[in-house]
């Protein structure tokens, strides 16, 4: 197999006495969607925050595009093409789609040798339209504040922003939370589009149907440790749930005391 | 499931504009331009009532009266302009009133010091400008640093600095008005671009105050005094800054969603410091202009204007939640207050009633802004998760 885009080696993160992430290693390859599953408090979010520069791992190493990587701050990760879409989407609801896609990285026109710089709204609108079209996303209007958009549409804006800025790796934290069922389907569809664009996605979720719908591979975490890594096609809900609740240990052995009967 | 290749037309959370009812659209339009309408109706009201009350002796819409309103508006508007940026950025600056006072004292002291030290008049005035605006900017910078870096709420920080600045202003002015300024600065603060003397022996005078007295002086109108022109330039600059530059865009972004601004890499702390420095600077400008206008520095000139300036900002449609508002809105807000006050004075309405009317307008303005959101089916920002 080709060199992985992102490679984690023995990542450990502690908060005082609590080991939030315990010796986790994994590889992410180009063009795959990897589901990161686990119960609440399993360490999923902490792990991706170590990747995106919010936290710094206490132990272990990270390789991005084959090079040793250390992101001191989230902005460093973004400069390297690691885009994280959090549940709050990091959108300014009072600004329009174009302004949001270019938020913090506005395109400017220069006058008098750069002495006066103004926003180039036309250019930003054109680029936004092109990106949205490449993802086959259609909005009735791009010049209204996005507070009028639905949750799924806002998710689409956040994804389009990451795509426009050449995301090499996309991390999505529970993107289908708080969405209606039709909207969930559309967000999953967008994740498939990202894969078509060759952008790998780490999808944090605890919704198993979502994971089965879009992922190629699933990593399960339990109490900070990686307990399973399976090709999506070679596993099933029952097995994953057993890993998630700790009824199966990391060698795949069923622990009878911990087994929880599943409804048939 | 969505079939692949189809366009994703995500269901809208809100009805798009095309399916609003005509009544809704009319209401939306009315709520958007209500401030203009209100201003126009008010002017119309005074145009009709002022001659009625005075028996035809006084008229509202005269050159002299319009210029009086413009002159009166200058300090309030300058305070309100800086405040507009701060409030759009979801902050508040309660210190601008006393900062204006401090700037008035500082510019008077510096100007007098420079002139007495043998400097010609114009450079002395520049020294006064630098001292006034610079001193104010330092206060704003300190406000910004405490708010952005030490995370103390803006309300508390600016309340605290307003007391401190008040003390400093009294101290520097030695508890009295700073006088002994060169008489020549009167011209800077009061002269105008254009003069017009009505009737016999009159005419236009451009850039030069005609040396007349008695009857001719009474018939003379002063058109566009320099402080008004300076303020107009500040207005134009502020509008440009807010609408056309990255600075303005980031101000809206920070007011609309602090987390989003942080996550997208906007230097939020630095921006907040700039906002408060800007706010104090426009207050400093107001203080400097008042020193020129009255040929004296006063430590009590600014404070009464603070609440009027915030009222102007709010009437102009700036959301106290942050993230919404325009410079033109603030200008109209300031105009509404000035026209209202002037008109009521000309109707011989008692002063206390002016306050009651202005207060009512502030509350009604906010109600109208909220009804716009209701009509459009939007959520108030405060109600979102």
From TrEMBL, chain A:
One Gene Ontology term of the molecular function aspect: ATP binding
Stated name of the protein: ATP-binding cassette domain-containing protein
InterPro entries: AAA+_ATPase, ABC_carbohydrate_import_ATPase, ABC_transporter-like_ATP-bd, ABC_transporter-like_CS, P-loop_NTPase
Domain ABC transporter: 6-248
Sorted UniProt keywords: ATP-binding, Nucleotide-binding
UniProt keyword Isomerase, yes or no: no
Keyword ATP-binding part of the UniProt annotation: yes
SMART domains the UniProt entry points to: AAA
Family named by the database record: Belongs to the ABC transporter superfamily.
Species assigned in the record: Mesorhizobium dulcispinae
Automatic annotation (TrEMBL), chain B:
Localization: Cell membrane
Topology within the bilayer: Multi-pass membrane protein
Entry superkingdom: Bacteria
Keyword Transmembrane helix: yes
PANTHER family the UniProt entry points to: ABC TRANSPORTER PERMEASE PROTEIN YPHD-RELATED-RELATED, RIBOSE IMPORT PERMEASE PROTEIN RBSC
Keyword Cell membrane in annotation: yes
Pfam families reported for this sequence: BPD_transp_2 (PF02653)
Keywords: Cell membrane, Membrane, Transmembrane, Transmembrane helix
Transmembrane stretches, start-end: 33-57, 69-89, 96-115, 121-142, 154-172, 223-242, 273-292, 304-322, 327-345, 351-368
Principal location: membrane
The protein's name in its UniProt record: ABC transporter permease
CDD domains (alphabetical): TM_PBP1_transp_AraH_like
């Amino acid at each position: 197999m080709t060199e992985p885009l992102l490679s984690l080696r023995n990542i450990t993160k502690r908060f005082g006495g609590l080991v939030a992430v315990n010796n986790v290693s994994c590889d992410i390859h180009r063009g795959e969607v990897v589901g990161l599953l686990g119960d609440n408090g399993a360490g999923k979010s902490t792990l991706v925050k170590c990747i995106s520069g919010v936290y710094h791992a206490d132990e272990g190493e990270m390789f991005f595009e084959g090079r040793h990587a250390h992101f001191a701050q989230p902005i460093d990760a973004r400069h390297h093409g690691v885009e994280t879409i959090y549940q709050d989407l990091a959108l300014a609801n009072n600004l329009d789609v174009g302004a949001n896609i270019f938020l913090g990285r506005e395109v400017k026109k220069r006058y008098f040798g750069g002495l006066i710089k103004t926003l180039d709204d036309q250019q930003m609108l054109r680029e936004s339209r092109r990106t949205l079209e490449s993802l086959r996303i259609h909005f009735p209007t791009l010049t209204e504040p996005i507070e009028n958009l639905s949750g799924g549409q806002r998710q689409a804006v956040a994804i389009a922003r990451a795509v426009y800025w050449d995301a090499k790796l996309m991390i999505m934290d529970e993107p289908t939370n708080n969405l209606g069922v039709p909207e969930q389907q559309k967000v999953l569809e967008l994740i498939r589009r990202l894969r078509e664009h060759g952008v790998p996605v780490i999808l944090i979720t605890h919704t198993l149907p979502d994971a089965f719908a879009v992922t190629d591979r699933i990593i399960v975490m339990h109490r900070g440790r990686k307990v399973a890594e399976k090709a999506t096609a070679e596993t099933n809900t029952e097995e994953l749930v057993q890993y998630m609740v700790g009824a199966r240990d990391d060698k795949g052995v069923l622990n009878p005391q911990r087994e929880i009967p599943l409804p048939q | 499931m969505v079939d692949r290749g189809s366009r994703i037309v995500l269901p809208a959370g809100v009805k798009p504009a095309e399916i609003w009812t005509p009544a809704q659209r009319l209401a939306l339009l009315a709520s958007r331009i209500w401030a203009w309408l209100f201003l126009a109706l008010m002017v119309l009201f005074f145009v009709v009532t002022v001659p009625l009350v005075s028996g035809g002796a006084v008229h509202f819409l005269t050159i002299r009266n319009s210029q009086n309103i413009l002159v009166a508006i200058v300090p309030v508007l300058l305070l309100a302009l800086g405040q507009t940026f701060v409030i759009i950025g979801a902050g508040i600056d309660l210190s601008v009133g006393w900062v204006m006072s401090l700037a008035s004292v500082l510019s008077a002291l510096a100007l007098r010091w420079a002139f007495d030290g043998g400097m010609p008049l114009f450079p002395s005035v520049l020294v006064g400008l630098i001292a006034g605006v610079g001193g104010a900017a330092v206060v704003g910078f300190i406000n910004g640093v405490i708010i952005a870096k030490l995370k103390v709420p803006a309300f508390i920080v600016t309340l605290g600095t307003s007391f401190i600045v008040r003390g400093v202003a009294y101290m520097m002015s030695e508890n009295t008005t700073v006088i002994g300024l060169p008489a020549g600065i009167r011209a800077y603060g009061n002269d105008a671009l254009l003069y017009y003397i009505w009737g016999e022996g009159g005419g236009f005078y451009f850039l030069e105050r005609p040396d007349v007295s008695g009857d001719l002086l009474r018939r003379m109108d002063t058109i566009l005094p320099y402080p008004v022109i300076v303020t107009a330039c500040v207005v134009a600059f502020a509008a440009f800054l807010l609408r056309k530059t990255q600075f303005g865009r980031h101000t809206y972004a920070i007011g609309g969603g602090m987390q989003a601004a942080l996550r997208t890499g906007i230097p939020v702390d630095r921006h907040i410091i700039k906002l408060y420095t800007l706010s104090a600077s426009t207050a400093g400008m107001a203080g400097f202009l008042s020193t020129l206008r009255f040929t004296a520095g006063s430590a009590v000139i600014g404070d009464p204007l603070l609440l009027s300036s915030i009222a102007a900002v709010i009437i102009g449609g700036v959301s106290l939640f942050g993230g919404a508002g325009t410079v033109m809105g603030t200008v109209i807000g300031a105009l509404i207050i000035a026209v209202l006050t002037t008109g009521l004075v000309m109707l011989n309405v008692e002063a206390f009633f002016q306050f009651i009317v202005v207060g009512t307008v502030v509350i009604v303005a906010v109600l109208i802004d909220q009804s716009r959101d209701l009509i459009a089916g939007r959520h108030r920002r405060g109600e979102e998760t």
